[in-house]
Amino acid sequence: MPEPRTALAERIARRRRGDDDPRALVGEMRRALLLVPVADGGLWSVRSGGVRWICGFTDEAALAAFALHHGPRDRAMDYAALLGARIVDEIVPALGEPAGLAVDIATEDGSMFFPPVTGIVPDAVAVDTGQAEDAGHPGEERHGR
Fold first, then answer.
1. What's the rounded Cα separation, in Å, for the pair 60 and 141?
2. Crossing angle of helices 7-16/22-31, nearest 10°?
3. What is the pTM of this model?
4. Per-residue confidence at 3, pLDDT binned at 50, 70, 90?
5. Are strands 79-83 and 51-56 parallel, antiparallel or unpaired?
6. Residue 4 pLDDT more than 50?
7. Whose CA is closest to 30, among 124, 121, 131?
8. Whether 58 contacts 101, CB under 8 Å
9. Mean per-residue pLDDT for 112-125?
10. What pLDDT band is residue 134 in, cutting at 50, 70 and 90?
């Protein structure tokens, strides 16, 4: 029997079908406890399209699907459980570069990206306000790979 979906995974599915309000999806992401792989002393992230994406997963099954292709073969993948709000409000601004949140990226029909824009990340680091370039963030990488 398949594992029940989390509230965030359900909202993502509805949004992908066009049946849900994007603001409700962002609210659900902020309330969700996400599993974020830890590697090399920081949170797992990837860079694509000029954005650094922190990878978070809605449950252990989604994390396991990711770990099959990207995890260490000889041991379990370590992870941190973090609220979505903490990721976008605290961790993203600390990275010093355009960053967002990628959820369930190993789930072909269930992934969702939360880009570094107003309404998702703090205005000071949102790329659509122009403030991110003016903030003079240091390039220090305190989180991530």
1. 27
2. 160
3. 0.85
4. low
5. unpaired
6. yes
7. 121
8. no
9. 97
10. very low
Q: Which residues pair with 52 in a beta bridge?
A: 47, 99
Q: How far is Cα 119 from Cα 121, in angstroms, rounded to an integer?
A: 6
HEC letters along the chain: CCCCCCHHHHHHHHHHCCCCCHHHHHHHHHHCEEEEEEECCEECEEEECCEEEEEEECCHHHHHHHHHHHCCCCCCCCEEEEEHHHHHHHHHHHCCCCEEEEECCCCCCCCEEECCCECCECHHHCCCCCHHHHCCCCCCCCCCC
16 φ, ψ (degrees, to nearest 5)? -65, -25
Contacts of 75 (CB under 8 A, 6+ apart): none
Mean pLDDT of 87-112: 95
Within 8 A by CB and 6+ apart from 10, the residues are: none
> In the structure, what pLDDT confidence band is assigned to residue 76 with cuts at 50, 70 and 90?
confident
